[in-house]
Amino acid sequence: MQHQKPAATCRPLLPRHPRWDEFVERLAGPNACNFQTDRWTCFGDMRFTTRTLREMGLDEQSIDVSTAYFRDHGGYCDCEVIFNVDHPR
């Protein structure tokens, strides 16, 4: 059985979005940053963030707005989105 990609949504995914917790769980999970181990994965860019948002059905404009917001709030790479945007100081 093939998974169908959800229809693209035209709303950025920011901390108050109803699917924010799902996004953070996916980003921290084994297919992205993998925080379940002592050594997580981060390449210093937003490859997992962008992929996760796309997999969740966001269109490119919403992804651009979301990642711009993350950068404005200290999230310059995947792990910083979790450390600085999800859990601000």
How would the blueprint of this fold be written?
Layout: H1 20-28, H2 47-55, H3 60-72, H4 78-86
Describe this structure in words.
The structure is a single chain. This protein has a domain of about 50 residues. It is built from four helices and no strands. It is globular and about 35 Å long. The mean pLDDT is about 90.
What is the structure about, briefly put?
With 89 residues, the chain is mostly helical. The protein contains four helices and no strands.
The proportion of residues forming helix, as a percent range, comes to 40-55%
Judged by helices, strands and strand pairing, the structural class is mainly alpha
Q: C-alpha Rg, in Å? A: 13 Å
Shape: globular
How much beta, percentage-wise? under 5%
Order of helices and strands: HHHH
Gap between N and C termini: 43 Å
Secondary structure tally: strands: 0
Count the DSSP helices: 4
Average pLDDT number = 90
List unreliable stretches of 5+ residues.
none
Largest sheet: none
